[in-house]
């Protein structure tokens, strides 16, 4: 009753299309969510995840598992929702996307012995500007579902990098190199590394290498969306 009254007094709108939301809807309306273009199953997303990293970077980094919930297309409703999550203060969207990812992971059964979740960190200046790290919010949503702790302190971004948006494939590969640093010794054998969008995989790989250098033996990746060829 209270939520219905609040909805009447302060109606919410969809972050994508700006239409009024129904009382049961949060952030995005059902019509826009229907256009988010999810992967058919976790196996399909993992196959394309591996292909993206191998083809974009010209190399293969060994990782145990890879999960993505949606296919990312430019100028799509999903892009608008992710932009709102990242730049417009809609950080709770990150938690919602994270829960969806957690459900997606659990639907496949075995998680391969993942011990903790590490979000890809923002540089401290970017975090001050935004006041939150969207990848950390996604990680928290995943953690709620798969019952694993989120350990943001295990990885820091030591070098400021420009946004990957608009960079060439080669620039995307070079931009995050050496940008991350982990604790000197990490007493965790299998980490789930989490980001919001994967385009080439360069950021995830750079972060993964920092964790490897700190002693992490196994790595798995998870992201809300994976960019696909237009």
What's this, in brief?
Helix content is 40%, strand content 16%. It is built from 9 helices and 6 strands. The chain has helices spanning 2-9, 30-33, 42-57, 77-87, 91-106, 124-130, 134-146, 169-174, 202-213, and strands at 66-72, 116-119, 155-157, 180-182, 190-198, 218-227.
Throw out a few tags for this protein.
230 residues; alpha/beta; Rossmann fold; 2 domains; four-stranded parallel β-sheet; two-stranded antiparallel sheet; disordered N terminus
Description:
The protein is built from 9 helices and 6 strands, in the order αααβααβααβαββαβ. It has 230 residues and is of the alpha/beta class. It folds into 2 domains: 1-34, no CATH class; 35-227, Rossmann fold, CATH 3.40.50. Strands 1-6-5-2 form a 4-stranded parallel β-sheet, sandwiched between helices. It has a two-stranded antiparallel ribbon with strand order 3-4. Helix 4 (77-87) crosses helix 5. The model is unreliable at 1-10 (pLDDT under 50).
Query: Helix-strand pattern, N to C?
Result: HHHEHHEHHEHEEHE
Sheet with the most strands: spatial strand order: 1-6-5-2
How big a fraction of the residues is strand?
15-25%
* CATH architecture grouping of the largest domain: 3-Layer(aba) Sandwich
The domain count comes to 2
State the total count of DSSP E strands.
Answer: 6
Number of helices: 9
- The secondary-structure class comes to alpha/beta
Helix percentage: 40-55%
Largest sheet: 4 strands, parallel
The residue ranges in which pLDDT falls below 50 over 5 or more consecutive positions are 1-10
Task: Give the C-level CATH assignment of the largest domain.
Answer: Alpha Beta
């Amino acid at each position: 009753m209270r939520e219905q009254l609040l909805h009447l007094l302060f109606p919410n709108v969809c972050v994508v299309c700006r239409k009024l939301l129904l009382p049961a809807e949060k952030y995005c309306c059902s019509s826009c969510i229907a256009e988010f273009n999810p992967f058919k199953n976790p196996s399909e997303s993992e196959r394309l995840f591996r292909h993206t990293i191998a083809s974009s970077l010209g190399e293969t980094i060994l990782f145990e598992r890879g999960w993505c919930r949606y296919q990312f297309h430019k100028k799509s409703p999903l892009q608008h929702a992710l932009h709102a999550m990242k730049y417009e203060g809609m950080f709770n969207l990150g938690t919602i996307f994270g829960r969806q990812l957690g459900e997606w992971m659990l639907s496949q059964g075995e998680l391969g012995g993942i011990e903790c979740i590490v979000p890809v960190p923002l540089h401290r200046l970017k975090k001050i500007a935004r006041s939150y790290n969207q990848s950390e919010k996604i990680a928290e949503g995943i953690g709620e579902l798969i019952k694993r702790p989120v350990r943001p302190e295990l990885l820091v971004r030591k070098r400021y990098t420009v946004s990957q948006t608009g960079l060439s494939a080669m620039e995307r590969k070079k931009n995050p190199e050496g940008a991350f640093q982990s604790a000197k010794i990490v007493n965790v054998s299998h980490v789930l590394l989490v980001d919001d969008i994967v385009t080439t995989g360069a950021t995830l790989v750079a972060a993964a290498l920092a964790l490897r250098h700190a002693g992490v033996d196994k790595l798995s990746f998870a992201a809300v969306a994976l960019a696909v060829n237009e």
